[in-house]
Amino acid sequence: MQKKSIFSLGSIALLLVLFVAISILSANLLKGFRFDLTENRLFTLSAGTERILENLQEPVTLYFYFSQDVSRDIPQVRSYAKRVDELIDEFVNHSNGKLTAQRVDPAPFSEEEDQAAAFGLQAAPVNNSGDTLYLGIAASNSLDDVQAMPFLQPSKEKFLEYDLAKMISSLGNPEKQTLGLLSSLSMEAGYDPATQSMSEAWVVRDQLSQLFNIETINARSGELPEDVDVLLLVHPKDLDESMLYQIEQFVLAGGHLIAYLDPFAESDRGDPNDPMAQMQAGSSSSLGSLLQGWGVNYDPTRVLGDLQYGVGTGRTRHIGILSVPGEGMNDEDIVSADLELVNFSSTGWFEAVEGAATQFETLVQSSENAAPMDSSRLRFLTNPAELMNGFNPTGDRYALVARVSGPVEATMAAGEDSPDSHLAASVESGINVLLFADTDLLTDRLWVQRQPFFGQSLVSSFADNGTLAINAVDNMLGNRDLISIRTRATSARPFDRVDEIRVAAERSFRATEERLQMELEETDRKLTELQAAKGESELLVISDEQQAEIQRFMERRLEIRRELRQVQHDLQRDIDRLDTQLKVLNIIVVPAIVMIVALVYAVRRRRRQDRPRPPYQSGEVGAS
């Protein structure tokens, strides 16, 4: 018995030694080897992000600033900060040593807080005591270029991977990219014959020139520069066949295209020396057969009217000028997400061709109270109310901005000058095109105000048109890996079942309230009729019939109030029942299952140990 005890203790000690040894070896041999078992694969980077990190040219350093002490009583922020920290670890693990990360806790009045402010990070106040919270990321490369994400908002968690990858990509590959601009509109500063004065460049044109190298393309040249990273078309009207062929080949080869088309470009004033042309301002633009080849329908002769998004009020509403609010934006695409208001004027729309192989994604859309109308109605329009005549909303929502991607085939034959380089179909990754059905949204009048300030022009925006335009170029100038990065799912897990119960109860509650309101109005009507039937001398006297009606209503109102309370009670009862079930499952059922499995295993193991061994047969060994 003593030997058996000693043997058991020795076995336990040996197992402990083996466990420690295996743990140490696995920590080193399997470093970075992980399984992501979360429902939305929250800890797995997109393939595009992994390729960006593997191909960094410059080393990049990340600085994650997070106020640990200040956030102790804000569990939501601490949970999100942990998610950010875990994502940064994943970035570092896939960077082949080109990316390093430092965690900084900027205590008040410390050097770290001064550094955070120098990076441009923002501190958010958290209480009345003056405490501030830092939750931001700064990054730098070996060339001393610095970029920052001033404050990480938990509501934008789904774009965190994209924003972080974009910042690292621009610092790790710092060469400024080229934007090829082909426009039939005068977007640059110059002399305006109509006003006999100098005109300023469009604000969006200035902003683009500050962020990217802009190469102006002559539409009559018939060819595109070779060093263009993104091609930007702004009202490409009357393009000849050779230029359309060049544009199609550029897109088929994997080039990124942003096209602003318009069925009625109000900013196109025509020939300044021709008075008749000035009176008939407004022209249309299209890309001809290219759009059909990409699986897109577009009518350059019709504009869109919208009763709901049209500017103004009542009969003075201009249904041809649209102010699209946030509900009209696609919050799943980085280009249109988080925009609050974008203004359009005499805009067209796009539709997906049925059966097309391409993917058509709407980024900005009209309301359901919209309908097409001929663009000719806008040419000599003096009273916007006239557009309401004969206008009947279709109930459909129309795509004002769309992204088109996927495989396509060429629609134009090869030219004689370049038969060898002709592409008959898109490259394996497919095309990537952003289409806007309006050019006027880029003009200053729809989104900015200019005010003189000590000899300079001070610009303030009242809409997000410029942000939308910059987002589009910024997104498309990113390499194809950056564009392919998906929006991450949020780590927050809503109580879907509880929400369903609450919505159902609220629906029932609203129905009961509406029934009560209808009975109130009906009783009011009956009382009014009874009162109207009396003579002047009887107006102050309540008849027996009125008294009975009032009594009946009072009793019914009490009954309906009891119904409302019962609905609320049922709501809470269902939620409490679900809460109880979850508690029983977590506290009793799951541990009970584990305990039963352990007991069954222990009993079976004990039975095997107690099973009698066969007698030793000495003659079977060494008989020879």
Architecture overview:
- A 7-stranded mixed beta sheet has the order 9-6-10-11-23-22-20. Strands 1, 2, 3, 4 and 5 form a 5-stranded mixed beta sheet that branches.
- The model is unreliable at 1-7 and 619-624 (pLDDT under 50).
- Helix 6 runs parallel beside helix 10 (465-477) and helix 12 packs antiparallel against helix 13.
- Strand 7 and strand 8 (197-199) form a beta hairpin.
- It has 3 domains: 47-172, Glutaredoxin; 178-191 and 198-381 and 388-477, Rossmann fold; 496-533 and 547-578.
- It has helices spanning 2-29, 47-54, 75-93, 111-119, 160-172, 203-211, 241-252, 275-279, 289-293, 465-477, 480-484, 496-532, 544-610; strands spanning 60-66, 99-104, 123-125, 132-141, 146-149, 178-183, 190-192, 197-199, 213-216, 230-234, 256-260, 262-265, 283-285, 296-297, 302-306, 310-311, 318-325, 341-345, 351-352, 359-365, 370-374, 399-406, 431-436, 448-453, 456-461.
- It has 624 residues and is α+β, with helices and mostly antiparallel strands.
Q: How does CATH name the architecture of the largest domain?
A: 3-Layer(aba) Sandwich
Q: What level of helicity do the residues show?
A: 25-40%
Report the CATH topology name of the largest domain: Rossmann fold
Radius of gyration: 35 Å
Stretches with pLDDT under 50, minimum 5 residues: 1-7, 619-624
How does the helix and strand content classify structurally? alpha+beta
Principal-axis shape equals extended
Measured distance between first and last alpha carbons: 36 Å
Write down the CATH class of the largest domain.
Alpha Beta
How many helices in DSSP terms?
A: 13
Physical arrangement of strands within the biggest beta sheet: 9-6-10-11-23-22-20
How many domains? The number is: 3
Average pLDDT value? 80
Profile the largest sheet.
Answer: 7 strands, mixed
Beta strand %? 15-25%
